[in-house]
């Protein structure tokens, strides 16, 4: 592929501010959170440790982590009024709209009154998002009013428990935890930038997160994991995948889960989630979706030099864990909330309203013709 244009459309390559939180495409494997390589974190840390790191700038000690988890656990349940709102959202609504409404409505019930409450608001959303998603999903799809509390130790395990009503396996607990780590933070991506723009007006945390969810929803961003799943399910075999992808490229269709705005040759998150997807495919007892995904990866690299981004192998991994496709992007919300909130806090620490300029390309100045003469 040709080198990226460093100016113009999409603000590509232009710096829009400073951050201590993350580097993308710079050192190590290409992605670091507060100086730690994402592959190191995915292997040696848990999602709660990463959340603590993003909110505090340092990894917690054992005691700090225990205290943090003990703080989050009582925040998992939902207020009755929020459950009533969730019950009214129809089954055919998109779950990202449910997440958006859930975040926004919680902001009505428990507003962030001033910035001294920013950590409390972020932690509340972090703890409550799994229940927002699964309470709505199981009520609208199965007619079940779930208990939003579980004794699962981690946010990932808690989500799986609420979704299935069963104790998750150790493998599933670990994979969802890794997935939440991989999705947690990514510098000035579209949804995080949305959150920072909102924060720069001195708006509240819930508004910033609600706005960010709207940005993440689109298929060019977080929505790509769901779109990738829909695509690979249409392929009957690795050979069929290659034939159909050739047709898609011929018709100039975007292949979801491939390419990236910053990375040029690979997305460091892919190799990690791909390995877990392979392992899950063995447990699942049918590796065809994994084999098809590998064929897609090979074909896109060979023909277009396009590589899988974080979303592509997340599709098969989540599928093997029995997670419904429409919940894929909401899981991204449960994770990225940490990055969004950390960026909101960072923006507030050194704020100036974000207000770029535009190059005007419209009409020359002109007079209003009275309406009777137009
Ligand atoms: C977690 C995340 O949000 S990761 C991103 C998730 N999004 C997707 O997977 C959606 C599919 N991918 C894409 O649409 C893009 O690659 C993006 C949005 C991720 C990046 O967009 P850009 O920075 O504009 O991409 P880039 O400059 O590298 O694209 C150059 C050309 O490569 C081609 N290209 C890039 N990605 C793809 C793709 N997935 N399928 C087909 N062609 C592609 C296009 O021809 C593009 O030119 P065009 O925009 O004029 O059609
Ligand atoms: O950085 C981006 O543009 C998109 C991305 O990979 C992310 O948000 O995780």
UniProtKB/TrEMBL annotation:
Domain of life: Bacteria
Keyword terms, alphabetized: Transferase, Tricarboxylic acid cycle
Coiled coil (residue ranges): none
Protein name, entry field: Citrate synthase
Protein family according to the UniProt entry: Belongs to the citrate synthase family.
Pathway of action: Organic acid metabolism; propanoate degradation; Carbohydrate metabolism; tricarboxylic acid cycle; isocitrate from oxaloacetate: step 1/2
GO molecular function per UniProt: 2-methylcitrate synthase activity; citrate synthase activity
GO cellular component: cytoplasm
Keyword Transferase on entry: yes
NCBIfam families referenced in this protein's UniProt entry, alphabetically: cit_synth_II (TIGR01800), PRK12351.1 (NF009006)
GO biological process, any: tricarboxylic acid cycle
Catalytic activity: oxaloacetate + acetyl-CoA + H2O = citrate + CoA + H(+); propanoyl-CoA + oxaloacetate + H2O = (2S,3S)-2-methylcitrate + CoA + H(+)
Pfam entry (one): Citrate_synt
Database matches in InterPro entries: 2-MeCitrate/Citrate_synth_II, Citrate_synth-like_lrg_a-sub, Citrate_synth-like_sm_a-sub, Citrate_synthase, Citrate_synthase_AS, Citrate_synthase_bac-typ, Citrate_synthase_sf
Active site: 260, 311
